[in-house]
Amino acid sequence: MMKVLIAGFGTVGQGIAEVIGSRQNLFSSMNEKISIVGAFDSSSLISGKNLNPTQLVEKKKTTGKVGTKEIPDDVARYIEEADFDVLLDTTPTNIEHAEPGLTYILSALHSGKHVVTSNKGPLALKFSTLSAAADKNGVKLKYEASVGGAMPIINLSKQLLAGEDITSLRGILNGTCNFILNRMKEEGLPFYQALREAQDLGYAETDPTYDIDGVDSAAKVAILANAIFGMDVNYYDVVRSGIRNITEDAIALAAEENSVIRLIGEIGGGKLEVAPRLVPVAHPLSIGGTQNMASLITDLAGEITISGRGAGKKETASAMLSDLISIIRDKE
């Protein structure tokens, strides 16, 4: 039996709990059982031998808390001492100092526990530190869900394309920006009207800074640069500009050149950058909506393009599930 502890029980935490509950037959076919032995949010904690995912989610929805006990003052110590095999870290991204996720992940790794995380902050700021801790303690650090939601770019690159020399990457890594830019083009909307529409539909946060100023995309570029290209960089190494200053005139001028404007993350050829770029309408990266998409240039297979929904409860849970299955298979 593989015992998991869920750190953070917002939308993503609830999503992975529900998926664990619904995929027990899959785990059984792999001669494994996944048991949730604990979960905590910002104010409460619950622990037990085999917690019911449906009941956990229902309690969170009805009371605002997942647990029946107050969260301990020293969560790091709790993680170190608790009896579990995998930490499922779904804590929110903090790009300034990566806490509390950074401490939670390091505590798990140092105590010999695997980690599956959706949190970009620790990876974007301390990737080499986390990787070294996992290697030193002989455990796995998995983070497909941190970049692109249901777009499996990390596992694709590291597994199916393991024999390729990947020389560069260009991609749309933020669905919110893509939605806004597409609405500006299709409907002729000014930036802030398109932003309000994205907020009304739930695609953009009340404070959209991370999205529209390229912070989210830059964090993902840093993670991909380390994970796929073997670099040793962090978020602050990425040259970044967002879409806040894109005007209707700029959108119209792009259309005259049979192009669209997209916020593109780039790695390779000396570039480590996020910026608005002109993209020909016939190119895959001209895609609209909230999709994420990335194009990899390889030496043998040429250009490979992958896309998927970049955010959402089920989409992120899907990515975390794939990492959890990878850990199960590595046990065999």
Automatic annotation (TrEMBL):
Database matches in SUPFAM superfamilies: Glyceraldehyde-3-phosphate dehydrogenase-like, C-terminal domain (SSF55347), NAD(P)-binding Rossmann-fold domains (SSF51735)
Chain residues that bind L-homoserine: 205
Gene Ontology terms: biological process: methionine biosynthetic process; threonine biosynthetic process
Pathway, per record: Amino-acid biosynthesis; L-threonine biosynthesis; L-threonine from L-aspartate: step 3/5; Amino-acid biosynthesis; L-methionine biosynthesis via de novo pathway; L-homoserine from L-aspartate: step 3/3
Question: Where on this chain does NADPH bind?
Answer: 120
Active site, UniProt feature: 220 (proton donor)
| Start and end residues of each Aspartate/homoserine dehydrogenase NAD-binding domain | 8-144
Assigned keywords, A-Z: Amino-acid biosynthesis, Methionine biosynthesis, NADP, Oxidoreductase, Threonine biosynthesis
Q: Per the similarity annotation, which family is this?
A: Belongs to the homoserine dehydrogenase family.
Family annotation (PANTHER family): HOMOSERINE DEHYDROGENASE
- For this entry, the protein name equals Homoserine dehydrogenase
Supply the source organism's classification: Archaea, Methanobacteriati, Thermoplasmatota, Thermoplasmata, Methanomassiliicoccales
